[in-house]
Amino acid sequence: MGKKLTVVLTGILVCMALVGCAADKSNRYEGAGMSFKYGPGWSIFYREADEDNHVIELYSEEGAGLSVVSCQRDISSVEEIYQGMISADQLLGQVSGMAAVNNMSEEKGTASYAHRTKTNFAGDYWTLFFGKNLGDGQVMLAAATIYIIEEEEADQCRKEIEEIIASLKFSDKTDTGEITKAMVEPDIQTNVLVNYLSGEERSYDYMEGSQAASAEPVSLEGFEYVEAVTLTDAITNQEVEVCIPIGSDSYDGGGFYYGHGIQFSLTLAGDWLYSSPEEELSRWMQSYTSDVNEHPSRYQNMVIDDAVTVEEGLCCYQHMSVEELDTMENATTNHTLVYVGTAPNGIGYIVCLSVTGRDTDKETNQVLEELGNCYHLDLSGYGNAEEDLTNAGERVNPAQDIYTPKTGDPEIREADGYIYMGVTEISDYEDHIYEVMIPMGQNTKNYGNSLYANMHGVNMTIGTSSLYGSTSLIESVQETIQYRYDFMAENSRDYKDLSIGEPEVTTQGEGVYCSTSAGEHISYDEQVFPYHQVYYELRLQGNNVLTMTLTLDEHDYDAFTNILLGEIEEAYRMDLSEFYYDK
């Protein structure tokens, strides 16, 4: 009893493609009472198991994971630990293909176990368990989970795991070294093993005396968008009554819905035997925040609220918001709320609610209000006020009108008599300086020899060019607009019902502009709206010309588009009335 053990657990090793899953044994980690080899594509973290022990975890670039924990325990418990893993997997699905070889004694030897689990919601996976006695009380245990995509790939991954385990050695070094703390929750097998080795006893009578067990059912009288349905938990086969939006795709174990800019999913999660609501909340929120962090060009200004515990071990939730940029760099705010609760019969469930700001409409608020009533949540701040909706069913984002100069950018100052237009300077290829006007907003950029702005569905770029030989402004504008018309014609899937206009002279005769349009343009979210490009040239000194392109996508028009177009007309003496938003 009390002999030194080093326990290695491979947490969920998801070998989606197996390419790079093999650990090239070129690096070695030493700490927490062990040492082992690992490949160059792995990152190492630590987790505090308890006050005396640490979990060492590795994650590969391909998504594989490896966890290591040191503790004191008798090796005679190896078989019991594996039986606990079988019991855990039996709660998730059907266990088959069990195999065992145990040649492990108090002095030396090895042990290995394996079984396959088939589930309806997480796919099939293998659970492997290994023991390795190095003598002198130095024992290593390892458990692995391999999700099965292809049998051949699973076999290869199993071989690589065995090679990693074969490299394990005991070490006198007990500190974790120069590594950072792990952020994700351990998998179910990790919890089983750590709880068993630490001797922790957990009570699973979660519902005794709880508020959830005595709560009155929610009345849905008068609800138009939400209904109560009975689902069967895939883990325990118990039935649970839950509230989901009308029109959801429901199935044993959960339901899914998308509409009015709302994505709603509900997943039944068993009886919290080997997990907890708090652990599930952390895992789901980690997934959402990781997705945002992996796409910095698409998301900005993420805000994560503190997790709220309604009743420990039964109910908790957490909210985050983030601004999403579309292809035109317009920002709208998205909300995500993860709510983890427990039904009166003890079955847990996870609700994930995401609201995409640009897709909300006049019914969004009502759907959120009804869902909030069902789950006792205030969701009123996640929808859109009806008066803020635009013709495309999107909310006007006031942040797009706020101009903040970028460090080092040339100055843009407000233009007298205008709401949106600003004045700045631009240079041509011969370093001549000219004063020009550009809309001022969140997405305005000044590069010194070119300008860019995008707001209210109007995208403007300004630069300079040169005319060659005897080319006139009209000829130059016609050539450019014909090129852009030809581009749309070649991309007939995204641009249909094309037209091209005749060159127009500005009201004071110094500039020329022309336009081409697509009556039907497929936008980034697969909606179809008219699309226009207006190209403008103004002669400067010598053969130099000022060039301007207006890209007008009616998908992004809003209540202020016409005001902005009117200011551009006044500033550049153009007629853009045919492109106004017709209310």
Task: Note down, in words, how this protein is organized.
The chain is of the alpha+beta class and 583 residues long. It is 18% helix and 39% strand. The chain has 8 helices and 33 strands. It has a 9-stranded mixed beta sheet, with helices on both faces. Strands 15, 16, 17, 18, 19, 20, 21 and 22 form an 8-stranded antiparallel beta sheet that branches. Strand 9 and strand 10 (139-147) form a beta hairpin. Helix 1 packs antiparallel against helix 3 (188-198). The longest helix is centred in the C-terminal third of the chain and has 18 residues, at 473-490. The protein is elongated. Mean pLDDT is 79; it is low at 1-25, 202-206 and 386-395.
Biggest sheet, in brief? 9 strands, mixed
**Strand arrangement across the biggest beta sheet:** 7-8-9-10-1-6-5-4-12
Helix percentage: 10-25%
Contiguous runs where pLDDT drops below 50 for at least 5 residues: 1-25, 202-206, 386-395
Query: What global shape is seen?
Result: elongated
Radius of gyration: 31 Å
Number of strands: 33
Q: What fraction of the residues are assigned to beta strands by DSSP?
A: 35-45%
Structural class: alpha+beta
**Averaged pLDDT, please?**
79
- Beginning-to-end CA distance, first to last residue: 81 Å
Helix run count: 8
Brief account:
With 583 residues, the chain is α+β, with helices and mostly antiparallel strands.
